[in-house]
Write a structure and sequence with these properties.
Elements lengths: L1 H15 L2 H7 L5 H23 L5 H6 L6 H8 L9 H20 L4 H26 L17 H15 L3 H25 L9
Helix pairs in contact: 1-9, 3-5, 3-6, 3-7, 6-9, 7-8, 7-9
This protein binds protoporphyrin IX containing FE.
The site of protoporphyrin IX containing FE has 15 residues, from helix 1 and helix 7.
Length: about 210
């Protein structure tokens, strides 16, 4: 996990700088744009859950037991956000990303843990984003922010348990390398998704 953090630090910094995130922090993100992100993020979680669900035992199933499904939470949150705006650019990323995860499920299931690392780790950044989101759209846990509150105050403990579980099952340096590659590719895809959603944002967010 230390290796993943170091080798994806630059990709994380690039992702964090995308205007979409600044628009949340400055409370200027149009609601239908956030709704679109929740919708697309839900589709990606559903695809990951499907791909991981095909691994009935082994290291991927072992780590998965420490996290759990999120697509249902995002679907429930979406109901509080109204109609999402269409973003064909982001939708195309969801299509590519889903196809890639399906391929990995067959060709290199262990690499799915690199995707899961990025998705699970994004909850840490979510702790910063959820306050402006709650204020901007009048949301709370159970009313639009269930996904962001999935771990509640125990988020650090969950992250430590996830880190320990990953470190237990991935020990071969060659396997680690495959996770580093899939985590970086995941950041790249997420970056493309958020960049697509950042088109046409109010100038103050850019
Ligand atoms: C404004 C946007 C974001 C902010 C402010 C942010 C902030 C943070 C913070 C504070 C941490 C915790 C570092 C620590 O204490 O260990 C973190 C970790 C992480 N974030 Fe973000 N983040 C953002 C966006 C994202 C996005 C969009 C993703 C991916 C979808 C992401 C993926 C991760 C991952 C994988 C980690 C774990 C790093 C590790 O291995 O320790 N973050 N982020």
């Amino acid at each position: 996990m230390d290796r993943l953090r170091v080798t994806t630090a630059s990709a994380h910094a690039t992702t964090e700088e995308i205007p979409f995130n600044a628009a949340i922090m400055s409370r200027t993100l149009p609601k239908d744009c956030f709704a679109a992100q929740v919708q697309y993020w839900g589709s990606l979680h559903a695809a990951l859950e499907e791909a991981i669900g095909r691994q009935e035992s082994g290291p991927v199933a072992q780590v998965w037991a420490l996290t759990g499904p999120r697509a249902g939470l995002l679907e429930a949150d979406l109901k509080f956000l109204g109609t999402p705006r269409d973003c064909p650019e982001a939708e195309a990323v969801v299509t590519d990303f889903t196809a890639w995860m399906n391929d990995l499920a067959e060709s290199d299931p262990l690499a799915l843990l690199g995707v899961l690392y990025v998705f699970e780790g994004s909850q840490l950044g979510g702790t910063i984003l959820k306050k402006p989101l709650a204020e901007m759209y009048d949301l709370s846990d159970g009313e639009g922010l269930s996904y962001y509150n999935v771990h509640g105050p125990a988020i650090r403990q969950h992250w430590q348990a996830f880190r320990a579980g990953m470190n237990d099952v991935v020990t071969d340096p060659a396997d680690e390398e495959r996770l580093v590659d899939s985590a970086n590719k995941t950041f790249e895809m997420v970056g493309r998704l958020l960049t697509g959603l950042s088109r046409d944002l109010p100038v103050s967010a850019a």
